[in-house]
Every structure is written in C-alpha cells, then in structure tokens.
Amino acid sequence: MLRILPIHQLEGGVEPAEYRVWVRAPEHVRPVGGVSYDAVPTEPLEQPSPVREALGPRRPSGWVLQKLSGGHGPGQAVLHARDCDEAPEGAPVLELERALDAAEKAGVRLCALCGAAAELDPVLRGFDHIGDDS
User: Fold this and answer.
1) I need a labelling partner for 42 at 20 to 30 A (CA). Which of 58, 66, 111, 129 fits?
2) CB 93 within 8 A of CB 66
3) Which residues are CB-contacts of 58 (< 8 A; sequence separation ≥ 6)?
4) How far apart, in whole angstroms, are the C-alpha atoms of residue 25 and residue 52?
5) What was the pLDDT predicted at 53?
6) Based on C-alpha coordinates, what's the Rg of the chain?
7) Could you tell me which residues come within 8 angstroms of residue 54 by beta carbon, excluding any fewer than 6 positions away?
8) What is the pTM of this model?
9) Which of 25, 30, 87 is nearest to 62 (CA)?
C-alpha cells in the first residue's frame, strides 16, 4: 500500500490531502535513487478478499421509515435503507421483519433511490415478478 500526499491548489493557497491506493512494486513504483525512506510511515494492511472486491463495501443493515406530512393515508411514508441520503436523521433502525411489516402497510412505499425497493420487493412479492414487463 502506498500513501500519497498530493498538494491541491485552492484559490491562491494550497492544502495537503491524503489518499491511499494499493500498488505493486516494482511494476507501479520504484524508489528514487539516493533518497532515504526511513521516515516514511508504513502500515501493513490485509489484502482485500476477492469476494469483497467483487461485491464492494457492505451496506449497513437495517431500514428506516420516514413518515410524511401527517403519516396517514396513501403515500404517507417511505421506507429507506439505513444509509440512504433521504432517510431521516435519528429515526429508529428497523430489522428485516419490522421493515417488511411496515412495507406491507397501506400508504408505505419503498425508496427507489437507495435500493430499498430492489432489496425488499422480492421478499414481499416473490422473485417471479423480476424481469416481467407487466
């Protein structure tokens, strides 16, 4: 792993920034001759699993119910994934069973932005409807 400290220019000033990347030596990087790297901090990291690389980062589990204007009647609540940008701050996190119970109630829709609809619809309606154009 290589830690890179670039300097970004911001309206007349500079600001250091850090980002980390995996590299393979010597294919990607080589030491500069005559330069000591003794003071360069290094951190051993576990190499990510191929499964984690293929699937990407894991979402936090749970869902959040957002009640809309009054909370009664059709279209009065939205069920979001916990990490959705539209999920209300401080709302209680629902486990799967409670999220499914909430999703089955009249007036509750599943958020399409965060994927709550894609994640919960197959559990609610079964997998047969996936790919149907009806």
Assistant:
1) 58
2) no
3) 52
4) 23
5) 78
6) 24
7) none
8) 0.51
9) 87
